Amino acid sequence: MAHKRPQQIPKTHERAVGPRGVDTKANNELFLKEVLNASNKFRAMHGCPALTVNPELNKLAQEWANHLRDNNIMQHRPNPKYGENIFLSGGMDVAGDLPVEMWYREMSSYDFNKAEFVAKSGHFTQLIWKASKEMGAGVARKADKTWVVCNYNPAGNIVGNFKDNVPRKIEQAAGPRGADTNANNEVFLKDVLNTTNKLRAMHGCPALTVNAELNKLAQEWANHLRDKNIMQHRPNPKYGENIFLSGGMDVEGELPVNMWYREINSYNFDKAEFVPTAGHFTQLIWKASKEVGTGVARRDDRTWVVCNYNPPGNVGGLFKDNVPQKKL
Question: Annotated region Disordered: where (predicted)?
Fold first, then answer.
């Protein structure tokens, strides 16, 4: 009797070696070190002092991460004494920098001029909060899920104190990578193409080639999104389309592609049908697509990215043949 090969747990953050997702002391110590390093990297970008680890906060965060895992829920601790950020990802092979990066990307929802609490950017403002001095982190895993909790002391997100504690990003010394120049955009588009083809190859899908007309089309729509300060797909598109918006102009081309790819967690290879929360992933991998065009537009602290694909993907009834599983 033939046995069906079990489907691999989808990875949300590629790692080179070892069963990272296993709950072992060594794995968790490495994970927490990555959380700390990523946190301090982002804080430094805003001129905020580095956090130090508090063992009691580590213990507190681990207890709550275990509670979330054991009850299979995602919610903040009621009436917390300390600041708290939480994260849940499908997939156990998660690196410590991923939750921190996701919290930081909430910057796109924060208005530095108003300098007030916004629910959609609460993780970002706590992460950066200048007056916070210590942190603790906990990670818990179960089946194909990973829960992460970070606690901060003193707590952030204090009403009336945002102006002093959530400073803008400091200009980078190495040059304005985020500036809209031909040289910067050419590097960006090359990064997008290379990352796209690397991920497609992992699924046995042929490399895409650049189409100049698709580049022009994608750039026009990226400019439109920037000029209108909106985020939406082109109505009735002739070609396949992926779109991305990030807070911060210093964005590299691999970022939007990796974010689209992480939607693999929402896709069911056995059902092989369209899923709105995995539409960027399936278009990215779509085997029958041959060409791609990319546009990038920047304004203030935001970056819009548009990719168009020909032939378009996400065609009903064709998912089985065009969205293959990752090769072993």
Answer: 1-21
Helices 182-202 and 254-261: crossing angle in degrees, nearest 10, is: 30
Number of Cβ within 10 Å of residue 101's Cβ equals 17
pLDDT in the model for residue 303:
87
Res. 29: pLDDT tops 90: no
Instruction: Report the 10 Å Cβ neighbour count for 205.
Output: 21
Going along the chain from its start, the domains and CATH numbers come out as 25-164 (3.40.33.10), 182-321 (3.40.33.10)
Higher pLDDT, 327 or 239: 239
- pTM of the entire structure? 0.53
Find the radius of gyration of the CA atoms of the chain: 21
Amino acid at 20: R
Pairing of strands 83-90, 134-142: unpaired
Comparison of pLDDT for 210 and 143, the residue scoring more: 210
According to DSSP H, which parts of 120-181 are helical? 122-128, 162-165
- Tell me phi and psi for residue 213, to 5 degrees: -70, -35
Of the candidates 47, 261, 289, the one whose C-alpha atom is nearest the C-alpha of residue 169 is 47
